[in-house]
Structure formats: C-alpha cells, structure tokens
Amino acid sequence: xxxxxxxxxxxxxxxxxxxxxxxxxxxxxxxxxxxxxxxxxxxxxxxxxxxxxxxxxxxxxxxxxxxxxxxxxxxxxxxxxxxxxxxxxxxxxxxxxxxxxxxxxxxxxxxxxxxxxxxxxxxxxxxxxxxxxxxxxxxxxxxxxxxxxxxxxxxxxxxxxxxxxxxxxxxxxxxxxxxxxxxxxxxxxxxxxx
Length: 194
Description:
Number of domains: 1
Order of helices and strands: HEEHEEHHH
C-alpha cells in the first residue's frame, strides 16, 4: 500500500513537471513567433522606406506640379502653389501602389549574436553583382515581407504620405520606430541596415 501511495505521488509530480515543461515551451515559442513577426514588420517598413526614397530620387527634382484649389477666390486670386513632383501626394500614392512588389528583391539575414532577422536587398538596381553569402533566399520570406508591406501601406498610408511629402532626414527611424512602433530595436541599428 505504501508503495502505491509513493508511486501516485511520483506520478503527480511527474505530470506537473510535464505540464510545466509543455507550458514553458509554448510560452517560449509564442514569444519567438511574436519577435519574428515584429522582425518581418520592421524589415518591411524599413525596406518600404528605402524603396520609396530610391523611387523619389529617380524623379527629376526640377519637375514641379501645381497643387491647391483651382477655384477663384472672391478677390480674383487662386490658392495654387507649386511643389516638387517627386514629393507630391499624387506621385507618392502612385509609388505606394507598387512599392510592395519590390519586396521580392529582398532576402533574410540572421544576426548570429542576437538571432534577430533583418532584410537586405538581394537584387541590385544597377545590375551589379552582389554578395549574397549571408542572405537567405526563400519565397516564404519574400511573401511574408510583401504581405507585411501591404499591411503597413494600408494601415499607415497617411503617415507615409506625410513623412515623404515633408521629411527627408532619418525617415526610417521616424516612421518605423517613433510614429508607427513597428520597430522596437531600430534605433540601435545602423542606418543602412534593414
């Protein structure tokens, strides 16, 4: 009888230990999945900023567009002003429609010291050969990066237009970290890293 009681106690402790271990594993995997999701969203935001900045830089800075109201005021004047085409709301909206397609040009890179994922361009815009030794090329990565980019554009369209219409310095940190909170660790990253 004593052996049966001892056996039951041991089994209860083993069951509690097993449940605790399973719970800890689930909690750890949830935390890792959340961090991986954050890495993808942060990477997509930073890649989006890079692609938008590059596309804006390709527009002739001398080209201007008239914006404002074309109505005639009571005094006979119009409220029209000229702004650079590259940073006009219409041009920015056009760029945002296709920017997420370029997420296919990115690959994943894992930092060996922190295990954080970052995303780097794997296709050169100029056709030059690139060092891809540290990049992982995977269709799942590009599709999740593209989906994250589309979600960001949809949820933060106004902020994106506002930043690119007016800001020129440090847009990655200002938009991706401070305004949208998509990157918790971006302020610690070098500016050329995604």
